[in-house]
Description:
Blueprint: E1 21-24, H1 34-50, E2 55-57, E3 64-69, H2 78-82, E4 90-95, E5 98-103, H3 106-121, E6 128-132, E7 138-145, E8 162-163, E9 166-167, H4 172-182, E10 188-192, H5 203-216, E11 222-227, H6 231-234, H7 246-262, E12 268-271, H8 288-299, E13 305-309, H9 329-334, E14 345-350, E15 373-379, H10 395-402, H11 415-419, E16 429-434, H12 450-461, H13 467-479, H14 483-503, E17 542-543, H15 561-568, H16 578-581, E18 584-585, H17 596-619, H18 627-659
Parallel strand pairs: 1-2, 1-3, 3-5, 7-10, 7-16, 10-11, 11-12, 12-13, 13-14, 14-15, 15-16
Antiparallel strand pairs: 4-5, 4-6, 8-9, 17-18
Helix pairs in contact: 1-3, 7-8, 12-13, 13-14, 14-17, 17-18
Residues 152-153, 194-195, 272, 311, 355, 383 line the site of alpha-D-glucopyranuronic acid.
Amino acid sequence: xxxxxxxxxxxxxSTTKLPxxxxxxxxxxxxxxPVSVAAKELQAGIQGIxxxxxxxxxxxxxxxxxxxxIAAYSDKYRELNASLLEKDGYWLVKKGAKVRILGQNERGxxxxxxxxxxxxxxxxxxxVDIVSNPDAPIRWTNEWDNLDGSIERGYAGxxxxxxxxxxxxxxTRVAQYARxxxxxxxxxxxxxxxxxxxxxxxxxxxxxxxxxxxxxRPYGLQLGISxxxxxxxxxxxxxxxxxxxxxxxxxxxxxTNKLYKRVPDLAGYLIKAxxxxxxxxxxxxxxxxxxxxLFAKAVEPHGGIVMxxxxxxxxxxxxxxxxxDRANAAVEFFKHLDGQFHDNVVVQIKYGPIDFQVRExxxxxxxxxxxxxxxxxxxxxxxxxxxQDHLVYIPPLWKEILDFDMRVDSKPSLVxxxxxxxxxxxxxxxxxxxxxxxxxxxxxxxxxxxxxLYAYGRLAWNPTQDSKALLEDWTKLTFGHDRSVLDTITxxxxxxxxAYENYTGNLGIQTLTDILYTHFGPNPASQDGNxxxxxxxxxxETIGMDRTVKNGTGNAGQYPPELAAKYxxxxxxxxxxxxxxxxxxxxxxLSTGKTVIQHFYDAHYAGAATAQTFVTEWESLRGKIDTExxxxxxxxxxxxxxxxxxxRDAVNGFYRNLSGIPxxxxxxxxx
Length: 671
Ligand code: GCU
């Protein structure tokens, strides 16, 4: 979306309205700061889009673009707008050929420059006068990259950051990635896997991290790192990693000071502790708050923050215990700790209570810790959503969660207002998106998968935006202005999440993918009978998790009263979450009059049928998109079409066998 392709003739304005100069405030010729990056970006962008070479000058005129911080700008209207700007925000004014791009800070100026260029690239030359502020202070990506160069749940080749136990020498790709993220208003990257290795903190790697931070800083991005909780023992040679042990505290303080010496603007730490076999405070009977606060104290003098993940659960759960529920874990682990976390701790919560499934209700934790900073964790990498081999445009799913009203104290309590800090009046909060880009030239392994990254960044800036409108912006910037290209990509992308839900797992049963090994392809049998807790409780006659208070796991009761009542009652539970909250007979009838099992059969056909159309839709674009990208996507969409049939038949065959109930339309599935 930053290719700055030449704008077609019919979309160009008359030349008299174009600026003739770029003036960068706060810079010298040699500086490498967000404002100087912004000036160069403006120069390259205008050259690409309009074919005009603008000089970077020092004296502003009525036909120049001025970019810089608002503090460095002398203009009588400055005061008025300065007061409207919040951290990282910008003021963009365009009146004819006079353009002013003024940030609350340097980063804001860069964001404003990208916004201005995006407008030009989309052929929008209208005059504007806007103040744009980010909705939340934390707008980060998480990368699950390992020091050996592999990436957990990454589908685009090896790491751009690490290789052979250290940080790569050539960080060119890292700079390019920083540019992509900055263009969306993102401001932090946690570069290593949440399942972190202690070796991240060796002297040589700290220096390497410093090189990464130096590379991304000009783009206004700060570095964050994931820590291994047992590092004092595994790396430091101490006999313990107890968070309350004074030697452990001293070890972390010293390490932190060393890190900040090399990276003075380190954003902070991300911690996965006492989860999925990772070490943590529970090993020593300390609370998760004790664990988080250990790091909070270490980074506090440096202005850093700690993102502490709420993804803590027992993965050796007792399948025979009808009342046990992994979906209850976050509230059980965190609710009683509300108010005990330091001010610079943010609890990072996956959008749903389980794990990035094709559909989940919003995590009840958002409604249970009002005295704690919160961030939402979203997954851009398509772990459960077909890796990047299936087209799934995810923002409509995210929007359902972000726009969801938790009704805390029977008052409007949208998830997006909670994570922005607005609902509970908290200073910190925001967004963490698991991206997992790799060295593949497409970044994510598929060209169309990039719309997810684009929309994630834009939503983190302003979550009220419409997912379809964001997609259209992205498509124009990425593929040009041909109407049929725009319409087709919009159509198949908007249909993709509902289709994927239909041919994988519907009615809130979860994705039904293989959960034991690959997280790819159908394996409904893998959900049950093990300790992972992603259960469906399907047997010969019934299916679904009973999460009621009355008879089940009590999960419905973790929601505020209005929602709890709604989910407790099968009649008022939204049908798309029926099997998430209720255990029913296959023969239970839905509002359509269909039985649950027949709905399964039909939905899997409908989803797979939609996936077949993606191929024909895409083929209609032959010659309208460059061959490389056309063929690349055609290959993937054909794969998806075929794989959706595999999904359809595997899932339908599985439930047909289990239930013994034949399809009303007489379709059969042999495996
Ligand atoms: C999922 C994923 C793991 C990851 C974990 C997490 O379970 O499969 O690879 O480590 O989430 O988010 O910590």
